[in-house]
Description:
Blueprint lengths: L1 H30 L1 H60 L11 E11 L5 E6 L12 E4 L2 E9 L4 E8 L4 E5 L4 E6 L7 E5 L12 E4 L11 E9 L8 E6 L8 E7 L2 H12 L1
Antiparallel strand pairs: 1-2, 1-12, 2-5, 3-4, 3-12, 4-5, 6-7, 6-9, 7-8, 8-11, 9-10, 10-11
Helix pairs in contact: 1-2
Amino acid sequence: MRGLYQLFAAYGNFLLFLALEGLSLVLLLQYNYRQQAIYDHSLLLLSSSAERQVDQLGDYINLRDEVLKLQGENQQLKQALESAKFSNAVQQDTVSNDSLEQLYTYIPANVIGNSINNTINYIRLDRGRKHGVAPNMGVISADGIVGVVRAVSEHYASVMSLLHRQTRIKAAVGSDGYFGTLRWTGKDPQYMQLEAIPKHAPVEVGDTVYTSGYSQLFPEGIMVGTVSEVKPPPGRNFYAIQVKLRNDLGKLRYVYVVNNLMREEHEELDETINE
């Protein structure tokens, strides 16, 4: 009780002021229609704004869950599709069903770090050794190829982006499938160069560029971009081809790490040949 007296003694004037202000506000709103209408309208706007913020927060949380769900579904569909493609190829060669094996699996991941304004750019993923990611695995997104895993820790992976001066990706162009090597010149993040395409190949602006399947990193047929410029340099037997990338790496968020289940067998075969 003594504490309450001390409170009133210390803050009595301020509390009296608040009480009188509250009473004045009540009387003003109760006996003045115009001010009451303004108050009701302001309160409605405030409550509507608060509800909208809560709804947006809920939508964001639900959207995040939906994206993760779709990633899982896409992973399953990709693996089923790759399994079917590989199985059909084997069946056409009349190999027994015991030999049918899936060629690729996919590990969904989120981008948590990215750069595009350097000559050597890297991407960081929130998946690592614990999730099955290993060095020299390809990385793709819904819009095309992204890069190659270079280092992993228990929970994270560092990916050499397409926008890296050392990037070399096997790619084909046009319906005839002439293949060469994609390289980034370190300039525009929207363009790469396709090299080693012979001058007798029928290449035109607008032709599609896609993964050739000749490397162990990416499945065949993933779109990389389109030809934006074709130049036949004098004195050379190969085109200078500029490719506009389909994938905008500047807004990359969700990717898949490509696991080639036959990679070790390919590597063992290469080692045997090199001995």
